[in-house]
What we know:
The protein is of the alpha+beta class. It is 30% helix and 26% strand.
Amino acid sequence: METVKEALERTAATLSASINGVFADLEKIAGAVTAAAEAVPGVPRRSAYLFLKQDLADFIKLHSDLIVGAGIAYAPGSLPETPHWLEWWRAQPKGGPRFVTHDLNPDSLNYYDYTGREWFTLPTSTGRPVAVGPYVDFGGINVNIITLCVPAQTAQGMHVLGCDLTLANLEGAFLRTLQLREPVVVLLGPNGRVIASNSARIATGTLLLDEDLERAETLLDVSPGNPTRLPWKLISLQQ
């Protein structure tokens, strides 16, 4: 019979493989962005990246069991047409994804300054892919999400490719893989927020209470080979 630790190890391996598959496909698109920038003499205009609309639509469809949207945030000042530019697409129940409009006017009350968001600053400062969150996406769909983001280096600066995973999708994948009712198991993000759990008392998106952390029995990195890229932990709690 499978032990709790074995169930956690199996769950960690399955989740890690699934998320790293999304990362790998996102990195392929980031590579295409870098190549497109290098292929253009001088400073590339937005037209150099028109292929992204189809590539990201295909990417969203391929990983629709987990992700609800994807896009690119350009390095400030990298495009001649505008100082800032963000292109994001959201999955729809029918048809292809729709373009999500963000207010990029610094003088506007609804200004969305993506350059200060963690999902942009982390990959641009480290040059490495990372999973950010969970956090509430106030600039998009106003729900708890996790953003997987990868950098795309160009001579004009570091662009960031990203995709959004809802906690509802992640919780479904977590529960299907875990297949345990007892003990309580929590999938925890680096900011102390719950990504998923098998307990109705411990809700997704909430901070894990200190009293629960004190009951931690088994603690496992979801991606022990690369915890910086996927900084999640699985924790079983004493009953």
